[in-house]
């Protein structure tokens, strides 16, 4: 057998190409930053707002007691924002959630306070009413074809009127102690700790570990499909930064009253709906419908069915928010839930949802809701007049939507 001689090495020296590699890396990084500008900007804005109010309130806004109060006072808005962002991603809107919060809380109060049923009967009844409301509105939107804006506007009036009838125009209170623990109870002292609650710190550490593992798996999946990712040092820096924030938050809670039960409920909902929106067929269909309805129909998506269940889900989460709110206020009032729909919509848009649908995340909506919560809480601590608070919130919402429009125009011009 003849052997072929190996090719001779080229004596011409090769010029290193670090500039090309650097240019490519810089270009990829610039593309990555541009692509995630809106999401990254939300996180930066959140940190900046927290730091600003920490300075303006001389650190009171970051005290253990105040952080606990923020969790307790705005948890129901965050629950509503989870459902609202899915509605907006699909290209709809829901103006009735505040009235549904009031109605479900009223049903629960009548059964528990007025009729003397166990507290859990009120919870189950509120959830059943929320599901029925969602099915009612989903039917008109999905199968009759009436725009969601009109259906939920009618629902806002309808369910507010039903609330007044159920309560007979009077407030009902107080709930039993067990019902009140849903929104005002704490888990502490389970594994000890001197001067702090070790269980809260342990839960915080588990949350950071879960975030790091999830982020690393997502990074590997993007690399596998040749999608751009941030450099590994940047990834590590992001995980460390998020971990530091979470552990500081857990440390403050541990030095206050421990881990709020409502925070556990909220965390379970965030994890569940993040998985549903990102990892399930149903979640991908929601994005497909909002991104391009005609293409979704042609690709076999059962648009009517998906739209129906989107509103059933919104009714369910409105009921959860109604239970939390009535538990927090220790009663039911005819005016409960007033303007909650606007806070939930603002949280979704500030958190990155697009006006035209097809864009948004559950985590982004949570950050948007926390921005609103921190601003409201900080301005209250500073004694800012309520009218000024409304002006500031309106401007923040307007700027968030304007930023979305600007990004879309820039993306269209670059094509």
Descriptive report:
The chain has 415 residues and is mostly helical. It has a single domain, classed as ABC transporter involved in vitamin B12 uptake, BtuC, CATH 1.10.3470. The protein is 74% helix and 1% strand. The chain is built from 16 helices and 2 strands. Strands 1-2 form a two-stranded antiparallel ribbon. The N and C termini lie far apart (58 Å). Residues 1-25 have low confidence and may be disordered.
What are the SSEs and their pairings?
Layout: H1 18-35, H2 37-56, H3 64-89, H4 97-114, H5 119-144, H6 148-167, H7 177-184, E1 186-187, H8 198-224, H9 232-254, E2 259-260, H10 261-279, H11 281-291, H12 293-298, H13 303-329, H14 340-350, H15 362-381, H16 386-413
Antiparallel strand pairs: 1-2
Helix pairs in contact: 2-15, 3-9, 3-10, 3-11, 3-13, 3-14, 3-15, 4-5, 4-6, 4-13, 5-13, 7-13, 8-9, 10-11, 11-13, 14-15, 14-16
Q: Report, as a whole number of angstroms, the end-to-end distance.
A: 58 Å
In the CATH hierarchy, the architecture is Orthogonal Bundle
The shape is: globular
Any idea what the radius of gyration is? 25 Å
Annotated CATH topology: ABC transporter involved in vitamin B12 uptake, BtuC
- Uncertain segments are 1-25
Count of DSSP-assigned helices: 16
How many strands appear in the DSSP assignment? 2
What proportion of the residues is helical, as a percent range?
Answer: over 70%
Q: Roughly what fraction of the amino acids lie in strands?
A: under 5%
Number of domains: 1
Overall average pLDDT: 85
Q: Which series of helices and strands comes N to C? A: HHHHHHHEHHEHHHHHHH
């Amino acid at each position: 057998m003849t052997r072929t001689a190996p090719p001779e090495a080229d004596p011409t020296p090769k010029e290193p190409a670090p500039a090309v590699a650097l240019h490519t890396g810089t270009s990829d990084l610039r593309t990555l930053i541009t692509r995630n500008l809106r999401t990254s900007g939300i996180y930066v804005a959140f940190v900046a707002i927290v730091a600003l109010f920490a300075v303006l309130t001389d650190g009171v806004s970051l005290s253990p007691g105040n952080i606990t109060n923020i969790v307790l006072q705005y948890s129901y808005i965050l629950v509503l924002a989870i459902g609202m962002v899915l509605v907006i991603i699909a290209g709809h809107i829901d103006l009735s959630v505040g009235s549904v919060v009031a109605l479900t809380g009223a049903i629960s109060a009548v059964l528990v306070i007025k009729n003397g049923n166990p507290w859990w009967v009120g919870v189950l009844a509120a959830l059943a009413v929320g599901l029925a409301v969602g099915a009612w509105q989903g039917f008109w939107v999905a199968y009759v074809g009436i725009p969601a804006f009109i259906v939920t506007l009618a629902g806002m009036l309808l369910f507010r009127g039903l609330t007044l009838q159920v309560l007979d125009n009077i407030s009902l209170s107080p709930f039993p102690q067990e019902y009140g623990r849903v929104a005002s109870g704490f888990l502490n002292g389970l594994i000890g700790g001197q001067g702090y609650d070790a269980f809260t710190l342990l839960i915080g550490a588990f949350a950071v570990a879960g975030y790091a593992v999830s982020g690393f798996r997502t990074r590997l999946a993007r690399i596998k499909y040749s999608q751009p990712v941030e450099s590994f040092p940047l990834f590590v820096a992001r995980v460390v930064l998020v971990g530091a924030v979470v552990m500081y938050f857990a440390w403050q809670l541990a030095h206050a009253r421990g881990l709020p039960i409502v925070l556990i409920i909220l965390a379970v909902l965030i994890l569940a709906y993040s998985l549903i929106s990102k990892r399930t067929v149903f979640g991908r269909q929601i994005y497909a419908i909002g991104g391009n309805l005609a293409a979704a129909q042609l690709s076999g998506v059962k648009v009517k069915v998906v739209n129906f269940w989107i509103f059933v889900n919104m009714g369910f989460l409105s009921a959860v928010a109604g239970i939390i709110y009535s538990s927090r206020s220790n009663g039911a009032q005819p005016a409960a839930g007033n303007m909650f729909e606007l806070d939930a919509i603002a949280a979704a848009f500030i958190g990155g949802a697009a006006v035209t649908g097809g864009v948004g995340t559950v985590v982004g909506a949570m950050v948007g809701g926390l921005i609103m919560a921190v601003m409201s809480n900080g301005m209250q601590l500073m004694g800012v007049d309520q009218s000024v608070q409304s002006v500031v919130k309106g401007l923040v919402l307007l700027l968030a939507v304007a930023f979305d429009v600007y990004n879309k125009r820039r993306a269209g011009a670059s094509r």
